[in-house]
Amino acid sequence: MQARHDRPRTREEYERGLPDYHDPTGGFGGAAPAYSALTLRIVLASLAVVLGIAGAVLFAWFGIIWGAVVLGVLAAGSAVDLGWVVRRKRRGEPG
After folding, report:
1. Residue 67: pLDDT above 90?
2. Is the pTM of this model over 0.85?
């Protein structure tokens, strides 16, 4: 079996993204290397922001304050995640 890290990695390799970086089973059984799914995370976080805001507005409209607060916090957390993932994507990471 060949060693995975036969030389030190460069800064450019880290910026492009490392194959199998977050996959403990990466390369097992001849599987292709996995890269980060940043685009999927952007889509899912965007959907969560939109649905969270819409749900919070709906709950507030019907006077269910606890529901509006919970969905507002969910939307805020998703917006933070969205910003972080967009930052990583602009930095040049694949996905």
Report:
1. yes
2. no
